[in-house]
Design a protein that fits this description.
Elements lengths: L1 H10 L3 E2 L5 E2 L5 E2 L4 H6 L1 H14 L3 H9 L2 H19 L4 H14 L2 H4 L6 H15 L4 H17 L6
Antiparallel strand pairs: 1-3, 2-3
Helix pairs in contact: 1-3, 3-4, 5-6, 5-8, 8-9
C-alpha cells in the first residue's frame, strides 16, 4: 500500500514495481492490496518523499516513516468516535470515556498502530458510519451510506 502511495505521488499512477504487485493491464504491475489507505496516506507520504530528497535518503524508508504516523491518528479518531457513539446511545460521559479507553487499550488496536495496515482505517469508517446511522437525520444516514461504501475499499471485509 505504501508503494501505491509513492507511485501516485511520483508517477501519477497506481502501478507499482513488479516485486510489489501483480501483473495487470498493459504489462504494468498493481498492488493486490486495498486502495483506500494508499490514497488517505498521500498527505503523509508526500513530506516523507520531500525529506528523502532533501537528505538523500531512500524514498521508501522516509515515506514509510511518515506514513506510520497515520495509523495512530486513525486509532485516536476511532477512540474519539467510540466515545461519541457511546454518549449518543445514552452512556454518561464517564461511561463513554471508558468505552473509548476500552477500544484503545482493550482491543488489538494498538498492535496496528505500529504497522501500515488497513484495519485502523476500516475501524474508523465503521464506527463513524454507525455513529452517523444512529444519529437519525437524513443527512447523517446519507453520510453513513457513503462511509459504508468506502469501507469496502479500505478492506473487502468492510462490506460486511
Amino acid at each position: 500500500m505504501l508503494s501505491v502511495s509513492v507511485s501516485l505521488l511520483t508517477n501519477g499512477s497506481f502501478a507499482v514495481p513488479p516485486w510489489f504487485g501483480i501483473l495487470g493491464r498493459n504489462g504494468h504491475y498493481y498492488s493486490g492490496w486495498y486502495p483506500l489507505l494508499s490514497i488517505v496516506a498521500l498527505p503523509f507520504v508526500g513530506p516523507g518523499l520531500l525529506i528523502a530528497r532533501l537528505f538523500r535518503l531512500p524514498a521508501n524508508f522516509a515515506a514509510g516513516a511518515c506514513a506510520l504516523t497515520l495509523s495512530p491518528l486513525l486509532i485516536a479518531g476511532t477512540s474519539y468516535l467510540t466515545a461519541l457513539l457511546a454518549h449518543r446511545l445514552g452512556a454518561s460521559a464517564k461511561s463513554a470515556l471508558i468505552a473509548a479507553l476500552g477500544f484503545a487499550f482493550g482491543t488489538i488496536a494498538l498492535v496496528y498502530a505500529r504497522e501500515f495496515f488497513a484495519e485502523p482505517l476500516l475501524a474508523l469508517l465503521t464506527v463513524w458510519a454507525i455513529f452517523l446511522e444512529v444519529g437519525g437525520s437524513r443527512h447523517e444516514r446519507n453520510g453513513a451510506s457513503v462511509l459504508a461504501a468506502l469501507a469496502g475499499h479500505a478492506k473487502p471485509s468492510g462490506i460486511v
